[in-house]
Write a structure and sequence with these properties.
heterodimer; A: 113 residues; mainly beta; seven-stranded mixed beta sheet; four-stranded antiparallel beta sheet; globular; B: 114 residues; five-stranded mixed beta sheet
């Protein structure tokens, strides 16, 4: 298994500002993933973060809006840039382990006013 | 196009009754399949997974799921539901190409009556 922590756990931000979310894993993993869960909705994959290369974004998500860093095998950050109320969501970090299991962090609840 | 369907938005069962949550997927090949549970204010917890081999897989909390290739289904079952099982349940096939890129169903909200 993998234990994932995220910071902050929640935040309230003003529109037009940016927030960086941190994700820390207790073991080294090749791939880390960022998901979004909008209010009352299911989860949507934003991007895949591979250490040493640029993140790969899913359709509908762009690097300028959601820049991602992956400096090492246990850490990643997601920045939500130039926020609007539509960005209010729970953002979750996830990892896939060698035992073909996928674990999720507790999430960061973001409210944009 | 790839897709996953959870046809039941909300299910209500009595405590002690059996439960089956449906999941259908549309993929070219057999995907890796996961079921997650999300309790109010809690994170996502992995219930079980199907990777290959035996099509009936056992998970935590007494849950099991059966992969049926002919029906493109991966339904979640529990023989006797407990009040603590009330939560939202998500079926999530892996999109393939890169393991870990999950495609989530819209979820099924389970209510358990005492």
């Amino acid at each position: 298994s993998a234990v994932i922590s995220q910071k902050p756990s929640r935040d309230i931000c003003q529109r037009g500002t940016s927030l960086t979310i941190q994700c820390q894993v207790d073991s080294q993993v090749t791939m880390m993933f960022w998901y979004r869960q909008q209010p009352g909705q299911s989860l949507t994959l934003i991007a895949t973060a591979n250490q040493g290369s640029e993140a790969t974004y899913e359709s509908g998500f762009v690097i300028d809006k959601f820049p991602i860093s992956r400096p090492n095998l246990t850490f990643s950050t997601l920045t939500v840039s130039n926020m609007s109320p539509e960005d209010s969501s729970i953002y979750l970090c996830s990892v896939h382990t060698g035992s073909y299991e996928q674990y999720f962090g507790p999430g960061t609840r973001l409210t944009v006013t | 196009a790839q897709s996953v369907t959870q046809p039941d938005i909300h299910i209500t069962v009595s405590e002690g009754a059996s439960l089956e949550l449906r999941c259908n997927y549309s993929y070219g090949a057999t995907p890796y399949l996961f079921w997650y549970v999300q309790s109010p204010g809690q994170g996502l917890q992995l219930l079980l997974k199907y990777f290959s081999g035996d099509t009936l897989v056992q998970g935590i909390k007494g849950f099991e799921a059966e992969f049926k290739r002919s029906q493109s289904s991966f339904n979640l079952r529990k023989p006797s539901v407990h009040w603590s099982d009330a939560a939202e349940y998500f079926c999530a096939p892996d999109r393939g190409s890169t393991l870990g890129r999950l495609y989530f169903g819209r979820g099924t909200q389970l209510t358990v009556w005492p």
